[in-house]
Amino acid sequence: MRSAARQLEEDEREVSSCSRCPRLVAWREQAAANPPASHVGEHYWGRALAGFGDPEARLVLVGLAPAAHGGNRTGRMFTGDRSGDFLFAALYRAGYANQPLSRSADDGLRLEGAYVTAAVRCAPPENKPTPLERETCAGYLSSELKVLSGTRVLLALGAFAYEALWRLPECTGAGRLKRPRFAHGLEVELPPSPQGLPRVLVCSYHPSQRNVFTGLLSAEMFDDLLARARELSA
Fold it and tell me: Which of 153, 187, 191, 231 is 20 to 30 A away from residue 168, measured at CA?
């Protein structure tokens, strides 16, 4: 039987070669070919991104999609942009990360007990994937969650990720649950995993630059959610 780490590596190779969504392929490549002044001369990843983290994670964080000049540049989800700065600093404070910053895919960042991924795997124009693009990527998220069999808490970073997770039959029991309205701090008890583990879906506002700068999401608010996630996954 393949280990979880090996299966995730195989999934990563499959994701990185994906070209199913022409609009996203064109945008990610355009962004790579036309970097802002701060990134001129850098080599861009410019492909679809898999998640990363601990194969034995009990906490899985699901974002929207890579940023055009963040993950699309560095080759690692949430790395190299303002959202990632907020997220990894919080994971470090909560004991899930070994360092508070993530600037490149080879900077030594390690996650323990946590895994970070996204609903859509390519950078979308204006950070707005279409419903069809979300559905096209759904199989990748589903595959990751099947491999991450120890997951106890799914943390949706924003309403788009919440919608993506809710549409996965293995998360919500193929429509047997009534979907509550998205709200920061929302907790939904999910059907047990195939291994019989209790699972909870928790919601947070997305740690976007806009949400943080406007005060919709604060470091204290997110710290409280991670503390709650730790409690739920114990």
Answer: 231
